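User: Modeling request: complex.
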Amino acid sequence: MSGVVAGGYLVAAVLLILGLRGMSSPRTAHPGLIWVGVGMVIAVAVTFLDTGTRNLGLMLMALVLGGALAAVYGRQVPMTAMPQGVALFNGMGGGAAAAIAAVEMAGQGTVAGAPLVLGLLGALIGTVSFAGSGVAFAKLQGWMRRPFRFAGMPAVNALLVLAALGLGGVLVALLPVPGWVVAAFFAAGLALGVLLTLPIGGADMPVVISLYNAATGLAVAFEGFLLDNPAMIIAGTVVGAAGSLLTQLMARAMHRSLLQVVAAGFRSAAATTAAEGSGGLLKGIEPVDAGILLGYARKVIIVPGYGMAVAQAQHKVWELVKRLEERGVEVTFAIHPVAGRMPGHMNVLLAEAGVPYDKVADLETVNPEFERADVALVIGANDVVNPSARNVPDSPIYGMPILNVDQAKNVLAIKRGRGAGFSGVENPLFTADNTRILFRDAQEGAGDLVAALKQV
Amino acid sequence: MSDGITALYIFLLAAITGYEIISRVPETLHTPLMAGSNFAHGIVLVGAMVALSHAEAPLGQALGFLAVLLAAMNAVGGYVVTERMLRMFRSSQNAGGEDDR
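Assistant: Request completed. Predicted assembly structure:
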C-alpha cells in the first residue's frame, strides 16, 4: 500500500468518526453525514490507485450498476418503510463482506493464520446478517406475517452453528480445500441467518435490524483484518461498537430483553396468550364537539402513533396544529420512544410533514405536562398510552414506560374501530370517563377536525 | 511492536470510540443514526474493490463482481436514505426554507 493510499485511508477514517459523532445531535446531523460521505469518496478514490487495472472494467460496471439501483430504490422508498430500507442495504453490506472472503478463498493459499480466522469469522457473520436482513425486510414489508417455527428448530440451529464453525475450522487447517467445503460453509451461514430470524415477531424487527447492522460492521472490520485494510478495520469496528450500544438502547426503550429477542430460534414452545377484552364502554364524539374541545383549550398535547403514519395523516395533523396555534392554543407533540416502528421513526415522519423538531417532546420531558393539559389528542396510538402498564401488574405490558395521557383533563382519541393495539392488550384509557373517541381513520379524522375548527 | 498487537490496539480504540459516540444520542436520532452507521459500513466497498482486483479465475471474478455490486448498493443506498431523513430535521427558527416533500 503506497503512502498516498495509506494517507487517504487515515483521512477517511477520521472524517468518518467525526461525521458519526456529528450525527448524534440534531443540529450537526446533516453536516455529519456529509463528512462521512466525503470520507467514503476519498477512501474509494485512493483505492483505485491500489487496485491497478486488473478487472477494472468489471469493477466500474458493478459500481455503476449497484450505485444506480440503490439510488433509485433509496429515493422512492416511503418514509414509513424506512426500517426495511435500512435492513435491505444492511444485508447488502453483510453479503459484500462475505463475498470478499469467498474471493480470497477462491484465490486459495495466499492468506493464513489470524487474518484467515478473522476473515472466515467475518464471512460467517456477514452471511448471517445478509440472510437475516433479507428475512427482516420481507417481514416488515408484510410478505411474511406470522413468526415461523417448527418442532426441531432449536436442535437444527445448534447443529448449523456447529457445522459452520466446524467447516470454518477445516478451512483454516486444510486450505486449499475442495470448493464444496467452502460452499457448505456459506450455505450453513445462510440457513442460520434465515432460521434465526424467522421466529422473531414483527414488533421486534427494529431491534433485530439494528443488531444485524452492528454485525455487518463487525464483519467489515474482520474482512479488514483479512485484507490488511485499516479503513475497513476502523470504520467497521466503530459501527460494530456503536451499533451494539444503539441496539441495547433501542431494546431498553421498547422494554424488551435483547437476549429474549435474539434467542427466539433457540426456544422450543411459543407460549402465546391472546388477551381477551373485558369490554368497557367506548364513548364516541362528533367532529364539531371535538373541535370546540380543542379550539377553546389552552394546552393540547398530541400523541401520534403508527396508525397516524399508516394513514399518511401527518400533513393533516400538522395543518390542525397550525390552525390551533393561530387561535393561541399551545400545542406539543409527545413521542413515545417506540412510536412508529422503531425509536426515532415517528420523529422522522413528523419532520417529513414539516413539524419543527423543537415542537416534539420525548417521554421524560412531556410526562409531567399532561396534568396541565386541557386535551390530550391520541392519534393512532394505543399500547404506548395504556395505563395498565403502570397499574395492572399481571398485564403483559406491565412496566413498560408509557405516556401518562390519562392524567390530562380530557382525552380525545382518533381511532378506526374497537380493536386492541399491536400487543393485543385491552386499553382502559379508551373507556375512561374523560375519554371521547372520534371513530375515523386518522387522515379523515384530522381533516374533519380542521373543518370543524373553522366553525367554532 | 508486532503487527498483531497494533491491529488489536486499533480494534480496541475504534470500539471505544464507537461506544462513546453513541452514548449521549437523543432518541429522536436513533433511526437516522442507525441509517447513518449503515452507510458507514458501506466502506466495505473499498475491500470489495481490492478483492476483485485480486481475482484471476472466472469464479473469483464473479464473486468479486458480486462483492462490489452489493457493497456499492450498501454505500449509495445507505447515503440516500439517511440524507432524505436528515434533510427533514429542522427547528422552528429556520423552518420553511426548504421545499416540502
